[in-house]
Amino acid sequence: MTATTAPPAEKTAAPAPAKKSKKKLLIIAVVLLLGLGGAGYFFVLKPGSGGDAAPKPGPVAPLDHVQINLAQGHYLRLGLSLQLTDAVSGEHGGEFDGSKALDAAIEIFSGRDVAELAKDGQRAKLKKELVKVLEERYEGEVMDVYFTEFVTE
Questions:
Q1: Which of 115, 129, 144, 150 has its CA 20 to 30 A from that of 80?
Q2: What's this model's pTM, rounded to 2 decimal places?
Q3: In total, how many domains does the chain have?
Q4: Is residue 4 part of a domain?
């Protein structure tokens, strides 16, 4: 008795196209999900995409210089200009009260050593601290500080 059976290659040939089409569908689904996720991030979650846009620079308000007492009988002659935001330009009618800024500068620099102020990077560190304080005191009206005079004696 002889029995004929189909070769094993024919049995495996039929299911192969189904596996390929499932893989293609899976790949297409993954690509679509990634695309939708990226679009969702771009339109909804992207930092800075909301209403919290960074303020734009407005006018610069120069302030009178001030002398600040340092340690050991020394002093600092400090001149400041404040970079205001564009929202400030019309609010104050051309006059900007810098008394809060001068007060903050006196608080931050008073009693420091001349040697401390001369260290590399210390002036930038103190300026950054001053900007942070002024952003709080002026409620976002001040965005930067420029030293126009910085003389120790």
A1: 115
A2: 0.62
A3: 2
A4: no
